[in-house]
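dude i think i finally got it to work??
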Amino acid sequence: MNNIVLLGHGVGVKFVIESLLRSNLPYKVVAVVTHPFEQHKSDMDMLEKRKDIYGEFGYNVFDVENDYNIPLLESENINETNCVDWIIAYKPAFIISIGCRNIIKKEFLDLFPKKVLNIHTTPLPCYRGAANDTWMILNGEWGEKKFGCIHYIDPGIDTGAIIAKEYYEIPYFSYPIDIFKLRTSTFKSLLIKGLNNLESSNFIPEIQNVDLATTFPRQYTPVDGKIDFKMWHGEEILKFIYAFSYPFSGAFCNLMGTKISILEADFIKTDGFHPHAYGLVFGKNEHNQYKVAVDGGYILIRKIEIDGNHITQNKILRLGKYLN
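look at this
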């Protein structure tokens, strides 16, 4: 049996472990390294707040010891000597990164030549780095076919040759949580595909085309999620609302000093409003869902929150007032 050490966190750890347990391949996960417990707090808070929509995808890596009897090491930096020595003791055939938060340095890679791989669930060389779901919506990827992949780790960031791919299609009007679930489902098969390819004497990995590479920055919803009703077309506002919604706290605007997060909305095309009306709450429907004038029509607000709590719209929104 060949040993595998995982580096990272999240439900991908669970899916990879279980995929190997179900397979006939002579590999098993024998150890997991993750970042320190206190650095998981924001993720764990998100999983708890949105546990109803995460479901099985809300896995806590600290459960691997109880669930699978696999040792877990917390490490600030996997490149440090004590962590490297711990990994070496397991004599790994492969080391697999699953959302590892450290940049793996050349010195580490030289100790394990051609043994350090990464599972990256967006279509490299596009969407390198960790910022994915929000940007895929903003960039108009609804309806597009994409893939996750497993690739060699080299001294660059997500630049190594691709070993295997698994495809998925992004539905129209999907939220970040929907894309996250599609992407992370590829963990269930990617390692198996990759190991099978690596065992083939005829296999040639795919070199990434650097001309197609894209990298986008992480978005912090409470800061980056502000809606610009004055400058954006209604279709772009709708994408923006979706992009910062579930599992996140929602794109936001302000009304008379109160910060309002919009979690659900529609864009209704109509004869245009004068630009002076953009951002104006001008009407509502029979369900007391309010309408906001924008370029190309209006945004129909379906659900709002204040300070993370759902609130009925007529308790805060006012006809004839501007959202900004």
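The two ends are 61 Å apart (CA to CA).
im so relieved honestly
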